[in-house]
């Protein structure tokens, strides 16, 4: 092996920095030496065989390192991570170095075959999979124990808190970013986002989020268009009402099903639909007594599943319930305030008092936002304390906790108004206030505030370095110094959550407030721009993360659309117009509503079942690949059998 | 290739007949010659490289052929079909000839390593995958066109109707069968069925059916035990009623979820859980203009999907609706008859007239059975006319058609009685009559009648051959002659359908007639015996069919359990005891019932989501295998990359 990997030399004339590693100032020399050696060392010696260069800043500090890799190393890495690329015959295949000539745009000197974000993903994967060999601990840090086969990369990341490693992040490509910004949001225009470019710059997870945001906005337009006349002409006829709600319910099923198909088309083109799932390593925060992993047979920390279950059911679940109770308690206070404001208005009847009517709702919306954020930290702490072995399981438990709380927090008051107070006017008003306030707050807290802070910081920096250069003229040192101070983007969780709650506002009570879809569309259009701004200018570039779908969010949106069938049916049943249709018997009314609800639910499930998740074209392409791999397997088996018979 | 396969000689000293092929009397000599040559021919020449021997009967006819294979050929075939076997380290792995030594119980002279049913499955697979080479047609039959790569096996099977091939079936193993019969139903005893032995004799599909039947019977026992006191003491209190129904609803969810786990444990042990899905060839009846298959790129009949959709939506769907309407019409006649019988009883009040009360129900049950059977033929014809390319798609469309009709046919009258007539006494009586009549009819039509016919036939045969030998002493010729006249077992469809309808009787109206579970348990105990008898004595041995689960039936049972939540909630809401709890407001009653129903449905879905489909133990084993294969792939990639770098 040694000979074959040897010429992947660590010294290459045109070193291209891809990833930045910032170590703590004052990290022990022996640690740095050991660490850089492991990164540079040959594969055969258990290293990552990457290139590393210290970044010499003006102060002469040597705590920032740039990591790159030779082109050949990256190609071999692309094979290891299982990258899927387009072939010359337009089919998508897993890239292998031996079949590299069959891939589209491949040439031994075409360094653009892999996008920069792919190269960075490969480097991240290699760093995370760096494993300990003989060392029992990280040199210089005896408390950081290692054992053979233990992933150093993750161990080092765990030491972020211990202070060795400050951060790892991929570098921006100023030229590319400028181009992307221009096509994305640089000019005011109506059209699709450049999703393929976003994908090749930021990776699939983020591109898929923007794809979903765009799709969802387009999908809301019909609801918004149909909703406007209801508001303008104050249509409150039974027929039109029911028609609108029924359309909404079926439409929301259709859009969620169609999204799966569009998502399959996109991720097929990007190659992630075909990408094999990698074997999941334990997440960085996972700890436990050293034992034997029953799956890999290797030594690694083991944590009993029963202990975890106990922590979940005896601590997390009661805590979540307590929080839910508290949230309901706050809600009741809100209703007292509301009543007080109403009484005050009755007494005074001034412009001020009529403005005061909106105050409780606005306060409540702010409180909800604050509670959501505090709860989020608690949920993260608890889920991390539950000590999940896999990142995916951690994420699922976190998302579930946050979703339940956010759902209650945002919608409990609306449910209370609708189904306990039976006050449709108040419902409409609360819905509008909540929706609009939360949208404005979100846009502000998420993008504009960080953007403004970032801008101020850049100005200060520039004053400090006394340069008047534009972004693209910055030297590498300046660029790294600028980027390392930028905020970190923590993934698409909050962005999806915002869309999820918006979907709730639009669909749960759609027949009471048809204008919700209009506001959602308007918000989403600005959301696209502010999110794009956030990605390009506010945060550090995130590592690309391949993904084939939006995961648990698909389930969350589908659950919301099932709940909205129930709420809308009840709302329609409660409307005076429908009540007037059954003057003699409330019983018949309730039974009719129940029947319609069950029918709608049945139609929903049948539709979800009948609409295929992947378009026929993609199905055929996937079947073709499966057929080819089966044929190849058969050939290989025949060959092996023939060989074994010869012996 | 030729050398390596060459010593798989077609002449082996101890030829063991496995499969019987019966050609039509008077088949042209050239066809027989061509056919046997293709079976015997070496793989390198495109043959199946099996062994074939004509069976010389007393009349001197040569239209029956016995097919066998050398042990080596079978082992290579086991690799081709992807058989999964237990290794020496107790893990399950795909069998490969080169790694044969690592498998448990493998020895070069242990011919029991593959069970007889596995050998027969391998031979069936080889025959079905026999492909045409240069021949443009089957010699002697110019109308039977062939083209290179076309599967001859399936083509030949299609010629069953044309008359070349009468049948292909696997031979029974008299010794094994006797042993199996003894442990299965030979002695009256209480205990589990010998599922592993059933599996190794009949294959996984049939063993899984018997496993499900047994599991389902055990699962019904708690319902039956709780149901008995309700009947004996005529408990009609509200609390006990609701408790029973709630228990039933949650229980039915639990048993269906737990079944998935048990099924996973069983099929893991049998190796089918890990078996890779084979690429599906077009089903024998599929026809169309010759075109290019977009998946395989090979020439084969192509049939436009739009045409098929048109046939489905313009012919099949209206036909099914018509049948459903007709079924409802018959139901209305039944109610007229019922009314007439009641009036007659009112007038006469004799023992005869009280017996007459049961007559309409019995007639209706018989009519339903007859209609079901007629409809079944129509559905088979229609689905076959829809011209589905794949057997699985054909099966799904057929099952859907038959299920809808059977569901309506069996339960429409009960729904009518319950929710239109509101007559609980009549409901209970109808339910009992329908359940018991259909059970008796089924047992009779399915097993006892064929068994009796078969017995008579054997007697006649024995008289004919003037021998008084017992079963095991029969000569091969006698055995083949006996078995070729036996009926063909058409798969587990009808058996599952029976269980499905039984599940409907038990769960849909469980709170009205708690005794249904008792009858179901009693029926299932005899059903196990009569089905076992049917498999062992009445029908030809069926080809083993590997399967990992009960497929679409799981979905059907789950759907039934969702519907039963709705029906039971309504029934409880209608009961006088519950009505008495809400003396003032029927409205509150309906709302409470609706709330409870939605809660129960929500609990069901959460339970189905939370209970893992596979036990932890199996999950770990599967993860271990996946990990190993990923590691192996990585190693292989490294090796290939290293090799390609050397060049």
Structural class of chain A comes to alpha+beta
Distance between the termini of chain A: 27 Å
Number of strands of chain A: 10
- Indicate the multimeric state: homodimer
Helix content of chain A: 55-70%
Give the C-alpha Rg of chain A.
Answer: 28 Å
Overall geometry of chain A: globular
Catalogue the unreliable spans of chain A.
1-11
Residue share in β-strands of chain A: 5-15%
Q: On the 0-100 scale, what is the average pLDDT of chain A? A: 82
- Largest beta sheet of chain A, briefly? 4 strands, antiparallel
Strand order of the largest sheet of chain A: 2-3-1-8
Largest interface: A-B, 44 and 44 residues
**How many helices of chain A does DSSP assign?**
21
Model description:
- 2 copies of one chain form a homodimer.
- Chain A has 21 helices and 10 strands.
- With 647 residues, the first copy, chain A, is of the alpha+beta class.
- In chain A, the strands form 4 sheets. Chain A has a 4-stranded antiparallel β-sheet. In chain A, strands 4-5 form a two-stranded antiparallel sheet. A two-stranded antiparallel ribbon of chain A has the order 6-7.
- Chain A is globular and about 85 Å long.
- Chains A and B meet through α1, α3, α20 and α21 of A and α1, α3, α20 and α21 of B.
């Amino acid at each position: 092996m040694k000979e074959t990997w040897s010429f992947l030399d660590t010294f290459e004339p045109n070193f291209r920095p891809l990833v930045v590693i910032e170590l703590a100032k004052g990290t022990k020399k022996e640690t740095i030496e050991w660490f850089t050696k492991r990164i540079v060392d040959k594969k055969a010696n258990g290293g990552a065989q990457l290139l590393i260069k210290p970044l010499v800043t003006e102060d002469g500090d040597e705590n920032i390192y740039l990591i790159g890799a030779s082109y050949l190393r990256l190609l071999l890495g692309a094979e290891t991570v299982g990258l899927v690329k387009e072939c010359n015959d337009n089919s998508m295949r897993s890239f292998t170095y031996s079949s590299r000539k069959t891939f589209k745009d491949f040439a031994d000197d075409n360094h653009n075959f892999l996008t920069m974000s792919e190269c960075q993903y490969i480097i991240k994967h290699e760093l995370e999979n760096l494993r300990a060999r003989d060392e029992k601990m990280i040199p210089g840090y005896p408390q950081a124990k290692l054992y053979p086969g233990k992933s150093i990369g993750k161990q080092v990341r765990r030491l972020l808190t211990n202070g060795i490693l400050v951060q790892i992040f991929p570098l921006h490509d100023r030229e590319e970013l400028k181009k992307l910004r221009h096509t994305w949001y640089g000019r005011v225009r109506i059209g699709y986002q450049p999703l393929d470019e976003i994908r090749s710059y930021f990776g699939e997870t983020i591109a898929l989020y923007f794809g979903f945001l765009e799709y969802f906005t387009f999908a809301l337009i019909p609801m918004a268009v149909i909703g406007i006349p209801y508001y303008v002409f104050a249509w409150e006829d039974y027929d039109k009402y029911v028609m609108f709600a029924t359309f909404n319910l079926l439409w929301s099923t259709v859009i969620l099903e169609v999204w799966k198909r569009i998502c399959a088309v996109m991720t097929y083109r990007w190659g992630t639909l075909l990408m094999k799932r990698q074997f999941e390593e334990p997440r960085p925060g996972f700890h436990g007594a050293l034992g034997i992993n029953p799956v890999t047979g290797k030594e690694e920390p083991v944590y009993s599943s029963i202990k975890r279950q106990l922590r979940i059911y005896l601590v997390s679940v009661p805590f979540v319930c307590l929080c839910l109770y508290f949230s309901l308690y706050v809600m009741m206070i809100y209703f007292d305030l509301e009543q007080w404001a109403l009484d005050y208005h009755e007494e005074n009847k001034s412009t001020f008092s009529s403005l005061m009517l909106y105050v409780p709702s606005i306060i409540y919306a702010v409180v909800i936002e604050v509670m959501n954020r505090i709860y989020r930290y608690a949920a993260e702490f608890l889920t991390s304390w539950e000590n999940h072995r896999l990142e995916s399981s951690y994420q699922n438990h976190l998302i579930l906790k946050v979703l339940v709380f956010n759902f209650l927090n945002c919608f409990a008051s609306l449910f209370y108004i609708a189904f306990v107070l039976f006050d449709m006017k108040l419902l409409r008003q609360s819905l509008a206030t909540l929706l609009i306030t939360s949208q404005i707050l979100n846009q502000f807290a998420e993008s504009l505030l960080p953007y403004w802070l970032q801008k101020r910081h850049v100005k200060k920096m520039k004053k400090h370095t006394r340069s008047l250069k534009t972004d693209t003229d910055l030297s590498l040192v300046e660029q790294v110094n600028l980027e390392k101070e930028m905020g970190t983007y923590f993934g698409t969780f909050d962005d999806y959550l915002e869309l999820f709650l918006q979907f709730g506002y639009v669909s749960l009570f759609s027949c009471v407030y048809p204008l919700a879809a209009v506001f959602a569309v308007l918000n989403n259009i600005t959301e696209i721009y502010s999110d794009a701004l956030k990605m390009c200018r506010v945060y550090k570039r995130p590592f690309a993360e391949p993904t084939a779908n939006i995961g648990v969010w698909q389930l969350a949106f589908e659950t919301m659309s099932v709940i909205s069938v129930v709420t809308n049916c009840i709302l329609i049943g409660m409307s005076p117009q429908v009540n007037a249709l059954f003057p003699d018997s409330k019983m018949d009314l309730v039974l009719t509503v129940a029947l319609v609800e069950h029918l709608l639910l049945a139609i929903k499930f049948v539709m979800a079942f009948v609409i295929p998740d992947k378009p026929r074209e993609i199905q055929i392409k996937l079947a073709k690949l499966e057929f080819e791999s089966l044929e190849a397997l058969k050939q290989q088996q025949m060959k092996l059998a023939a060989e074994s018979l010869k012996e």
